[in-house]
Specification:
The protein has one domain. The protein contains 3 helices and 4 strands; from the N terminus they run βαβαβαβ. α2 links the parallel β2 and β3. It is globular and about 30 Å long.
Length: about 90
């Protein structure tokens, strides 16, 4: 099963939406700061224990997030790249 956040601010129903999915494709525009109409890594990181997706693919990365991608080191979290192929 594939779960997709779309382009949105963090909503707690994303945890239920992505529950037990094979992959949760989640936009991650910002790094720590609250981004209007977008999700930041700070929110995702905080919710990781509740997100039960097997893999979390972060997409739609903004400049602040791109500057910190090397700091994201979580077993299930993958940073999307243009043209990337994902095996399920």
């Amino acid at each position: 099963m594939i779960a997709f956040s779309g382009d949105t601010e963090w909503k707690d129903n994303l945890v239920a939406c992505s529950s037990d999915s094979d992959i949760f494709i989640c936009e991650c525009f910002g790094y720590r700061d609250k981004e209007h109409f977008h999700i930041s890594w700070g929110y995702i990181e905080q919710k990781l224990p509740q997100i039960t997706a097997k893999k979390i693919l972060l997409t739609h990365l903004g400049e602040k997030m791109l500057a910190h991608v090397d700091e994201i080191d979580r077993p299930r979290v993958v940073i999307a790249d243009d043209g990337m192929l994902v095996d399920l």
